[in-house]
Write a structure and sequence with these properties.
about 450 residues; alpha/beta; seven-stranded mixed β-sheet; four-stranded antiparallel β-sheet; 13 helices; about 35% helix; about 15% strand; globular
Amino acid sequence: MAKPWATFGVDLHLEPTGAGVRRGLTDALREAVRTGRLAPGTRLPSSRALAADLGIARNTVADAYADLVAEGWLTARQGSATRVAERTVVPPTGTPPRPRAPGRPTHNLVPGTPDLASFPRAQWLKAARRALANAPYQALDYGDPRGRIELRTALAGYLSRARGVRADPEHILVCAGFSHGLRLLGAVLRARGARTVAVESYGLDVHWNLLAAAGLRTVPLPFDERGTDPGELTDQDAVLLTPAHQFPMGGTLHRDRRAAVVEWARRTGGLVVEDDYDGEFRYDRQPVGALQGLDPDHVVHAGTASKSLAPGLRLGWLVLPPGLMEEVLAAKGGIDSCGSLDQLTLAEFLVSGAYDRHVRAARLRYRRRRDALVAELARRAPRVHATGIAAGLHVVLRLPPGTEQSALRAAAWQGLAVHGLHRYQHPEAGVERRDALVVGYGTPPDHAWSTALEALCAVLPE
């Protein structure tokens, strides 16, 4: 009885051509190795398995393998699999050379990423094991497009307790990070006939581009020492804000302006999108409650695990006004875009208290880094003023006028990845030019922070 196809082992796509089966197979294997389609070290199927796949005699495959071993294309040892020999791969004639990848910076101080080396692997693994052990088998099926009910319930409790969000599991939608959520909201706004979205003068171009891709124009609001000024909100259809910790300037939206934004939304029916950017990390002030808590009917609260845990999890959430869920689900396409097991693990992480413990430990670690940065600046670069330091994972270093570009050039020479403030300014913003560096102190692992700080101070004006 023939063995079923499922037992044949390693798959290998070959199309023997030419005169004779053995010669055709030998030529096809040689060409696959020569062009690099079969990389050095690749394990080949056994002669029995490949013969069954191709419908030819086993001895024919064994002879082809032997020929290529003799030529040096393959290696074979008694009791071990036949493999592609180590050799330099020559690309086919006419293949354009691959461009050389730019060298990685020695130190990465670009904002937006936490210390990935401190991801709580052991605790996450424990949560994953408990979640998998307790998961019903239906959890492995196509899921609710809103996300797993276990995670939405856990998020409702956590956001209410820690961020002052008025949340119900039925109004929470799990998405693959903030950008995914913003793309969905952009599609909903455009379907409603929206044309413009007010944004902050400083922010991320990726968010502006997502809104533009949805057919929406972004209009920057004024910015002053009290942060974003919503006084010019008129007939815009929505506004995107980072009220708890403005990115990148680092301030908190003034309480009067928070009230003004909500009043505008109530008066006009506009939608407020609240990006709760690194809201968990605060050092010198009390936590600022979510804007959504003032008016759940007009504010979308958007959060993620990207800064508190890791962006690679691709887990975010939208707390939606009651009347918006069906439209967002339609924009999402009626599918659950996040893995059920990761959702169940995060739910377990939240309910067990492991998330709170991790955030508190991370908060202490990042505060120590921030304190070291501020102290070193005072000692080595007193002309540089650090702002936005009360919370978050980055600071803005105000530079003497006209020195931002020279500091960026010096950073490149030092192998230091860092961004200038001008990178985050909306192209239509009518704000005064500020020379500054936006320095993320969350990214380097603990053991590399002191040398990264040394490299940063070396590029700053004394």
